[in-house]
Each structure stands twice: as structure tokens, then as C-alpha cells.
Amino acid sequence: MVDYACTLTIRFLETVLADSSKLNAEFYRENYIEATGDVLGATVPYNAVMIATFFLVGLDLSYRSRKWLRSNNFDWKKAMVIITGQQGRETSGVTISTSSVAQILLESSDLDLPLERLYIAPHGAVPKIQAPVTPDSLRIHEHGFRSLWNAMTGMTHLGETMFAQYPAYALENNMRPEIDASTLTVSELPKILSPDDWFAMNTRMRVVVEDARQLLSGCVTDYAAKQLRIAQDDLTKIVVPGLDGVDFSSKKRLPGYGEKQDIIKLSTYPRPIKINLPAPIHTINANGGVLAFRQAGPTNAEPIVWIHGLPLDSRSWSAQYEAFADKYNNIFVDLRGYGASSKLPADVKDVTQLYCDDILAVMDHLKIPKASFVGFASAGHVALRFSAQQADRVNKLVTLNASPKFKRNDTDYPYGFTEEQLNNHFVAASDRGIEEVTNAILDPAVVFQDLTAEDASKVISWFRTMSYNAGTDTLNGFFKIMAHDDDRQYVPRVKAPTLLISSSLGKEVPAATALYLRQNLQQAKLVEVPDADHFLHVTRAAIINELISGFLSS
């Protein structure tokens, strides 16, 4: 990489010195930093080289800092942290989100350091520390910093007393926006979803140039520190964007580089799928929260309520939007905790019932007396209960890989998750964060056996954005609460004609679950789609759309 970077830079300098007309932004972008032109023979964008370099610097700093910090076994919950001094240019690193040091500390603590115990003091004293560094040489500075920390903490506690009747200030470390093709501006460095998320990483390059608070060399330090945390310091598991897997002698395009993707193309579906469902978002206040939904199609047409499954949101129905938008009044719901809806209430006891109540509130708001329902996976579970409780509001019901009970037992229900599997997902979400549990939920060996590795990567990248938006609390609402439902008593009470669609390759919800439902529902047809895995409404969208359309119109 270093040899390539030096060679390309020499070529660029020689070219513009020989012909000054080429010293312009367009030539620089095309032939040097983006590598789309052929004048310099660039094979890899120099932007990727810079990202790789900055990542390696951040990785080195994070690794050494993390190793020392962890060797001291700090009680992070009681730590008193002050960051002083200048980092880079005079205006950079003055907030938690823009300070590489703050991000390294947070990740090194495995996110145990409370944000309210971390202060950035750009005007604070900067101690002069000389080698050798000993506890005694540092202890002489303790009084001044302890006084500063206590003064700041004491001031913040005044707010609780003086303004108790007003909303309190709460810090958030998850301030990174998720960006996609519709994003026009950002106010913070965007979240990096994977080592191939070049759209986010290149956007970061622009932000650090335009935002004086940012530090150029620190534009991916937080991502390096996060990878270290997730890998628990195993450097063999770290993927360096712009270096690992990159052939600097080849013109082969880096996966995802320069793409502002608003579609994905799969070999299993003849049409491109838009990653942003092109229907406006509407919201209502109901049941103590904000409920979001998208509406598309003639409002006087037969209504369909589409309910997404875990870990997705309404955008995951894009392939169905294309097929049904002109024929039906489509209501694509964001369940609580997902998409644009508000988060799950902290004290929720029955997640499925909350979702049923929310769907009813949306129907009442839109004055829809009766609708057909399509529910995928965990939302198929919701749709079954709703159809049993609100039989007069349901015209027809379609479920895809639905189950009345997600937890198996050895006596009368041998389908679904074991207790150990549910606990593993819950622990992954609670202890290792959204990245880890998302990786488990979207494991291609488990849920994308029906796609090539390339196609699976596209869908996973799309779904990952929705999962990260949902967050661990929402996903744990399933693994901790909803997955322990036993709704078998509701199944015989469903009166609506029902189409059960299942996947022949499904491990999450095996095909035998659909057979159980067909045998216990009043009016049910069962279709098992061959060579289809769990997310078949995307991976086998063509046949799914035909099945749903035929059933609803019959």
C-alpha cells in the first residue's frame, strides 16, 4: 500500500507539473482520490489509502491504550475522567463525539464508562509529564484535576434541584447518524456499518474537512476502537478498510466503493429493489408513543396492512411496494422500536399485545374498518393474535414464516428456538451490543442459504441499517419477552381465510411450524416455497408477490 501510494503521488505531481491545466479539482478527483480516470493508472482510490492509514493509526493508538487501561482493572463505573489539551487543530476534539481520545476511552471500557463521568476541558491545565512516568510523578496533578471534576459534577447536580419540573439533560454516545441515498446533510460523522461501507467513510472524509471540530487523522479512530472491542483485542479478527483484501495491482473496484446505493440487484429477482421504500412517513400519537407508517396506493382501494419482522422495518417491504402500490391501499407499519416509531416502553410486559394495540390505533386513525394483513416472521405472530382478537377487522391474512410460539419444548411443541439459543441472542445484545446480535440474526449460513455470497452481502448490508436503527432494547423485546409467548390458544379463533407461506430451508421457523398452523386454523392454505430461506419476501420476491396477489384477489 505504501509503495502504491508513493508511486501514485509521484505520478500525480509529475503530471500536473508538466501540464498545469490538470491542476484542478475534477482531475484530482477522477484520477487520484477516486481512481475512476485512466491518466495516472490508478487502481485503488487514494481515499481508500487514506482511510486505511487513518484506521491503522487509530488501531495502534486504541490497542496500546486499551491494553494499558485494561491491565489496571479500573472500575469504570466510578472513574473520574477529564481530557485536557489540544488534539490537532485548535478547534477539534472539543466534544465527546469529535474527540478520538474520548472514543478510545469509551470503547476501552467496553462502554462501561458512564458518559456523565467524562469531561472534555479544552481550557483545563495540561500537565507536563516527563519520563520515567511513575505513580508519584502523576499524583502531584491529582488535586487540581479532582477539584475540576468535582466542580463540574457539582454544577450538573444543581439542575436536579433547581429545575426538577423540566426535562433533564441526558448524554448519548450513539449520536452517529445512519446515512443512505436520501441523505443530503449530516451534523456528525456518520455511522460505519461495515468495512465495505465506503459511502459512510468517504462522507466522513468530507465532514472532517468541512467541520472544524473534527480531526482528519481521527476520522475512523472510533471505528477501529469499536472493532477492537467487538473482537476483544484479537487483531486477527480486525478488518482494515482499504487494505485487507485489496489488490493494489488490479483495477478491480473495491466492494461498495463510490456507490450511493438506493437499489440492490439480486440474481433471484428480475427487478432492482429500492432500499428506501418510496412512500411518505406518517406518524400518530397513540398508546403512549409515536407510531409511524407509510401509506401508498389509492386510498379508496382495498387496504393491506404490511407488518415487518425482526430486525427490520417498513422499508423491508420494498419489493412488495413495487408490486402492490398501484392496486391496493398499502399501509406499511413500523412496529414500536423500529423504523420511525418511538422506542419500546421500558416497562412493557407484553410486546405482542402492544403491537396489536398499535396496529388497531393506526387502523382507527385512518378510518379503515377492515383490511387484509401480511405479516413476516415475528410480525406473522403479531398478525395471528390480532386476527384472533379483532376478527371483524380482518379480511384475509397472509403470514410468511410465522409461528404462534417461538420457544420449543420437549412435550408438545418441538419447533423453534431452544432456551439456550434465546439466551445467547439476549446475552449478545445485552453484553456485546447491536453489532454482535445483528451478526447473529443475519448469519448467512443460517438465514441466507438461498442466495449467493455476493447477493447475501447486499441484503445483509441493507438489513443491518434497519437492525442498528432498532437497537438492542428493541431486539431484546423479542428475545426476552415476545419469544416466550405461547399463542397457540389464539390460532383456532382466527376466522379470516389465511395463506401460510413457509421456507423449505428455514431454520429460524421450520416448515413444520406452518403445517401445525394449517392443521389448527379454521380456513388455511399452505405453500412451502422450495429452496427458500427465512427472508423469502426479499430473496424470492417474485413468487411471493404472485402468491400474495393471487390469494388476495381470489
Order of helices and strands: HHHEHEHHHHEEEEEHEHEHEHHHEHEHH
Number of self-contained structural domains: 2
Instruction: Say which CATH homologous superfamily of the largest domain is assigned.
Output: Alpha/Beta hydrolase fold, catalytic domain
How many strand elements? 12
CATH architecture of the largest domain: 3-Layer(aba) Sandwich
Explain this structure.
- InterPro entries: AB_hydrolase_1 (IPR000073), AB_hydrolase_fold (IPR029058), AB_hydrolase_sf (IPR050266), DUF5624 (IPR041132).
- This is Alpha/beta hydrolase fold domain-containing protein.
- The protein has 554 residues and is α/β, with parallel strands linked by helices.
- It has 2 domains: 43-163 and 185-260, no CATH class; 263-553, Rossmann fold.
- Helix content is 41%, strand content 11%.
- An 8-stranded mixed sheet has the order 5-6-8-7-9-10-11-12, with helices on both faces.
- A hairpin with a 2-residue loop joins strand 5 (281-286) and strand 6 (289-296).
- The longest helix has 29 residues, at 453-481.
What topology emerges from the helices and strands here?
Layout: H1 2-18, H2 25-33, H3 46-71, E1 81-84, H4 100-108, E2 118-121, H5 135-139, H6 142-162, H7 198-210, H8 221-231, E3 263-264, E4 273-274, E5 281-286, E6 289-296, E7 303-307, H9 318-324, E8 329-334, H10 351-365, E9 371-376, H11 378-389, E10 394-400, H12 419-441, H13 444-447, H14 453-481, E11 498-503, H15 511-520, E12 524-529, H16 536-539, H17 541-553
Parallel strand pairs: 1-2, 7-8, 7-9, 9-10, 10-11, 11-12
Antiparallel strand pairs: 3-4, 5-6, 6-8
